[in-house]
Amino acid sequence: MENFIDKNRNQVRSFDLLTWFSNQIKSTTKRKKILVICDLDAYSDNLNFVFGEAYKGGSLAAIYLPRLREFYGLKPDESLFHRRIVKEAIHELGHTFDLSHCYNKKCVMYFSNSLYDTDFKGRNFCAICNNTLRNGR
Ligand SMILES: [Zn+2]
Ligand SMILES: [Zn+2]
Q1: Which of 21, 51, 109, 116 is the most buried (most CB within 10 A)?
Q2: Do the Cβ atoms of 103 and 87 come closer than 8 Å?
Q3: CATH of the domain at 13
Q4: Which range marks the domain in which residue 114 is found?
Q5: CA 23 to centroid of ligand 2, rounded, Å
Q6: How far is the CA of 15 from the centre of ligand 1 (A)?
Q7: Using one digit for the tens of pLDDT, what is the confidence trace for 18-67?
Q8: Residue 128: nearest ligand to its CA?
Q9: What is the mean pLDDT of residues 7-12?
Q10: What would the pLDDT profile of 90-132 be if each residue is shown by its tens digit?
Q11: Catalytic residue among 2, 78, 88, 92
């Protein structure tokens, strides 16, 4: 497990985690979509942290919970936390169905730079993303 944990940063290297899981998946299961829910903080490339990451058009997606559990000094809100998990899970799974980021701030495929973005967007695909999802590009 340690090979995808960056001990200096005390964070998961997200891409390495996806690679590790990818190597565990047998070829017969490649067509399925697998969502890894990980209660560890993670980062990717030049991003300080990520809420999740996925292989675009692939079978693997991961979301990371600690940053979704942040309430900035306000009372912890379990229901808000769950809504964030659902949005980020749908977002990452959207990537596995080959969707890219969307410019519509209400669309679940909008890139969340912060929890503000996650809380602002909905859990649904906008009309354009929905169309891409159904008919391809
Ligand atoms: Zn994304
Ligand atoms: Zn969209």
Answers
A1: 51
A2: no
A3: 3.40.390.10
A4: 2-135
A5: 31
A6: 13
A7: 999 888 876 666 578 999 999 999 999 889 999 999 999 889 999 999 99
A8: 2
A9: 94
A10: 999 999 999 999 999 999 999 999 999 999 999 999 999 999 9
A11: 92
Q: Is the pTM of this model over 0.85?
A: yes
Tokens of 44: 């990717």
Q: Which of 62, 55, 58 is nearest to 31 (CA)?
A: 58
How far apart CA 65 and CA 50 sit, in angstroms, is 10
Ligand 2 centroid – CA 59 distance (Å): 20
Residues with CB under 5 A from ligand 2 (ion): 102, 104, 107, 109, 126, 129
Domain count within the chain: 1
Q: Is 2 a catalytic residue?
A: no
For residue 115, how far is its CA from the centre of ligand 2 (angstroms)?
18
Under 8 Å between Cβ of 40 and 11 = yes
